[in-house]
Amino acid sequence: MKTKEMVFAALFAAFIGVLGLIPPIPLGFIPVFITAQTLGVMLAGCFLGKKTGTISVFLFIVLVALGLPLLSGGRGGPSVFVAPSAGYFLSWPVAAFCIGYATERVWSTLKTWKMILINLVFGVVLVSLIGAPVMALITHTSVWAGLIGATAFLPGDCIKAVIASIIAIQLKAISPIEEKVNNT
């Protein structure tokens, strides 16, 4: 791994942590809050690509596991791995990898609508399909109830997918993916 990739991975891990400073929005009917951090996960995947994006999100999770209060609401430490939101944030490296992989595959013909579609499928749907069943398991409710409850996140997550896509397209020229494509 090049120094530049390590710096990008660290910066994006820090960026996801900074997004955790935005107060979470409790919904009341589901034990998982609305946060801004999935925006950082989507950006990590679509700006950094599959390898560096995944490493940045994995680094973030390691820092949280070590006790740093980087999750929205100032949460961190081993207890977050058994909280109702555990499945959501543990799905983030998978989402970043899938977003990065899909983005790299269409890089030469990348358009805003393609980026939005990639972020919707992997940054919204995939995260919910992993997070909701884990939340249901931890809260001892049905998976179906967890999936229905997770629909509350869809409007905000769709907005985050559009924002991440627009930012990634605007920064395409300085993305590490651009460098990889030009060097091959």
UniProtKB/TrEMBL annotation:
TM spans (from-to): 30-48, 55-74, 86-103, 115-138, 144-169
Pfam families recorded: BioY
The keyword Transmembrane helix is assigned to this record: yes
InterPro entries cross-referenced by the UniProt entry: BioY
Membrane topology reported for the UniProt record: Multi-pass membrane protein
Keywords: Cell membrane, Membrane, Transmembrane, Transmembrane helix, Transport
Highest taxon of the lineage: Bacteria
Compartments it resides in: Cell membrane
Membership in a protein family: Belongs to the BioY family.
This protein's name: Biotin transporter
Taxonomic source organism: Paenibacillus dokdonensis
Lineage of the organism: Bacteria, Bacillati, Bacillota, Bacilli, Bacillales
